[in-house]
């Protein structure tokens, strides 16, 4: 079911705002250490602790305004709570850094299972936005599954091999830019397999 329409700039702010705030908070607090209950916490852990309620508030607001959340938004919120919470509780930033890996692995796996069954699960999520013929959905789903698998590997390599600064920049800028570039690269597929919307009587 489609959600209610809201201002696209407000929708973008609710979706990307928490990530931007995480980046700003990290830049400001990354070199500081905070002591609570006799335990020292890095700026990264503090910002992670603040990011969890901010993301949940933004997600809840988006749901209240639109009446709809995508499965990816729900799964992302759950994994942020679980792995962000584990990072805070165990004072170990590695749990939060693994979160994107698990998100991309989960969705790549789900799409892959659908492909093995001859179905495009991506179609159920994006059909209202991008109406395509069956062959187009199957091709796009294969590409998206591979893209998610590559992002999964990229996240693992970066958080394990590089500094936290590099990972935060990758998460904040690299992942959104890569996603945007990927879908822009699918223009020819959309043109080839796109279906005209005949539901508009004025068309």
TrEMBL record:
Belongs to the YciB family. The keyword Transmembrane helix applies. The chain crosses the membrane at residues 12-29, 41-65, 72-90, 102-122, 143-162, 168-185. Pfam families: IspA. Plays a role in cell envelope biogenesis, maintenance of cell envelope integrity and membrane homeostasis. It is a multi-pass membrane protein. Keywords: Cell inner membrane, Cell membrane, Membrane, Transmembrane, Transmembrane helix. This is Inner membrane-spanning protein YciB. The keyword Transmembrane helix applies. InterPro entries: YciB. It is found in: Cell inner membrane.
């Amino acid at each position: 079911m489609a959600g209610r329409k809201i201002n696209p700039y407000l929708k973008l702010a609710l979706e990307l705002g928490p990530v931007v705030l995480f980046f700003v908070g990290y830049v400001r607090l990354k070199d500081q250490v905070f002591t609570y209950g006799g335990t020292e916490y890095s700026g990264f852990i503090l910002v992670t602790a603040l990011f969890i309620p901010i993301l949940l508030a933004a997600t809840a607001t988006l749901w209240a305004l639109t009446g709809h959340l995508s499965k990816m938004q729900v799964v992302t919120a759950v994994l942020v709570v679980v792995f962000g919470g584990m990072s805070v509780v165990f004072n170990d930033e590695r749990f939060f850094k693994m979160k994107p890996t698990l998100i991309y692995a989960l969705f790549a796996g789900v799409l892959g299972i659908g492909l093995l069954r001859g179905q495009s699960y991506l179609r159920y999520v994006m059909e209202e936005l991008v109406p395509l013929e069956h062959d187009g959905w199957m091709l796009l789903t294969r590409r998206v599954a591979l893209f998610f698998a590559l992002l999964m590997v990229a996240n693992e390599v970066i958080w394990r091999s590089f500094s936290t600064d590099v990972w935060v920049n990758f998460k904040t800028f690299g992942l959104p830019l890569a996603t945007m570039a990927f879908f822009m690269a699918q223009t020819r597929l959309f043109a080839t397999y796109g279906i005209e919307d005949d539901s508009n009587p004025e068309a």
